[in-house]
Amino acid sequence: MNYLYGTFLVLRGLEAIGVWNHEPEIQQAAEWIRMVQNADGGWGESCDSYDDPTTRGVGVSTPSQTAWGLLGLLAAGDTRSDSVAKGIKWLLARQQVDGCWDESLGQGKTRQGIYTGTGFPRVFYLAYPLYRNYFPLLALTNYKRAVEKAE
């Protein structure tokens, strides 16, 4: 939650200010996102990443964190990799009939879902009940726009 979220936001910020997405630092960040993708096609990370560096980008796939991985890759100019295709497929396969996603599974469970935000590391963590919906919608919309732009 710490590294996926931070990496995607930095990549989006650099994209917003017009930094060329082929800069080595951007491609290195995108490669890290690809490397921590779960075998099921999604991404996940737990609160453990604050205490244990070996858990950076490691966790049960969640809709919000899968969207963060996708948004980071898209910001780095990746629209056609297997990682992006698998992430999009993961989101679409788990979208419910009402258009929402379930984020009740995983580590750090609360009654509202899993922790996907940080108040203060090691002190308290936050569960944002709408992250599971608006980040996937943002990722799918960005993907659609990027693919249309590339055509």
Write the layout of secondary structure elements.
Layout: H1 2-16, H2 24-35, H3 63-75, H4 82-94, E1 109-110, E2 113-114, E3 117-120, E4 124-126, H5 131-150
Antiparallel strand pairs: 1-2, 3-4
Can you describe what's shown?
48% of the residues lie in helices and 7% in strands. By secondary structure, the protein is mainly alpha-helical. It has a single domain (2-150), classed as Glycosyltransferase (Alpha/alpha barrel). Strands 1-2 form a two-stranded antiparallel ribbon. A two-stranded antiparallel ribbon has the order 3-4. Helix 1 runs parallel beside helix 3, helix 3 (63-75) packs antiparallel against helix 4 and helix 3 (63-75) packs parallel to helix 5. It is globular and about 45 Å long.
Annotation keywords:
single chain, mainly alpha, Glycosyltransferase, globular
CATH third-level topology:
Glycosyltransferase
What would you call the structural class? mainly alpha
Assign a percent range to the helix content. 40-55%
Q: How much of the polypeptide forms β-strand, as a percent range?
A: 5-15%
Instruction: Enumerate how many helices there are, as a single number.
Output: 5
State the major sheet: 2 strands, antiparallel
What is the H/E string? HHHHEEEEH
For the secondary structure, the number of strands is: 4
Any idea what the CATH architecture is? Answer: Alpha/alpha barrel
Q: How many structural domains? A: 1
Compact summary:
By secondary structure, this protein is mostly helical. It has helices at 2-16, 24-35, 63-75, 82-94, 131-150, and strands at 109-110, 113-114, 117-120, 124-126.
